[in-house]
Amino acid sequence: MAAVDALPNGYGQVFKLAVIQKMSHKEIAEILGIAAHSSSSQLSRAKRMLQKSLAQYWWLWLLPILLPLATYLYKTGRTVSVQQPVVNQQKQTASDTKHNDERTPAIEQGASAIPRIITQKTTIVHVKDVRVDIFTPADTVQHIGEGKEHTDTTTNLHDNKPQPELRPDKDTHTADLFFEKPTEVKDKQQKWSVDLAFTGSMNEHHGNSPFMFTETEMTDDTSEAPRIRSFDKWSDYAEALQSGIFDGDWKIQQILMKIAQNNAAQPDMDKIERRMHHYMPITFSLALKYSLNNRFSLETGLSYSRLKSESEIGTSGNAISEQQTIHYLGIPLKGSYNIYNVRQWNIYGSLGAKLEIPVYVQLNTDYYVNGTRELEEKFRPHAPLQWSVGAGLGLQYDLTPNVGFFAEPSLQYYIPTGSSIETYRTEYPFTFSLPLGIRFTW
Description:
Helix content: 10-25%
Largest sheet: 8 strands, antiparallel, barrel
Structural class: alpha+beta
């Protein structure tokens, strides 16, 4: 209904009466005081405008695909875990040792409490009245008594390496009993990532504004500068066109005269106004990012943007309608800074600039008289290069170590180009957008 309310007044009325109220074109023509064929034509144009307006929500169709995909990736994602030794402290007496392995000799009376490290297999070291169980992968048991040492197996875990000196009068730390360095797990730093993103602005622009027609009068004296006249009322413009004093295509002037006369005949509609609607700009981007270190990274790539605008001068089927579309290819250069990481979440900031090159510009102008299109013109105006700068604050959630979804609310400033072409960016140089995408890292 918001899209219906945004339609031009005549089209909106016809659409509501025909579609919502289920009235025939004959009934609509009697209510609005127009011809039946004009009602049919306006309904057809209203439907086309609604299709274009609602087409911006195409990305909602991706949700039924992305949600199952995200669930699958989350369930099948690999996790990396490092098993650490579990340290327990327990007190053993001579009576407890009777239940040990038959290979373990009896423990001297009065054994004190010792740390125990639980892993797979055991190496037992006796130093005076201290009992230490060191669990190792090798099936090796060593007994160290006062002044003598023997091994129960043919393999000595530490070969001829010197044993640490244990002093009963000082605290003995368990780590001092390990003769090899602890295992270190070092994750390979992920240097590269590829982003696929969709960007849409948060609002659209539409409204009415006064408009003036400008015409150049014909003159026989080539030495004089041509006289240009401007008109802001339909009645004045119709009268001037009827006089035939302007340069230009005669057919177009006749059509313009009919449009001006029909609008001037409408009550309280003599003032010339233009209804402008700038659609939400959309952007698709493919970016390649390289991490300089754990904090800083650089990003570049390629983006595609589409800017679309529509305008109409006149009403009740007597109007000049324009549709303008500009397609850009952009080359961004951006730096980002990793602010905070916690588990699967990542917060980062970005700052950069972008150059956008217009690759295709189309302007269609349709002239309608009493709801019938009398003439269609197509132009290829020249659009300039577009520079912009922007900053954003991104939030990423990692489904797996290599796949994550991100949202990066951003603020862009589009540097004015001085062109007469009107777009959403000329109306709002400062634009807030919300890029959404998926990131693959390796």
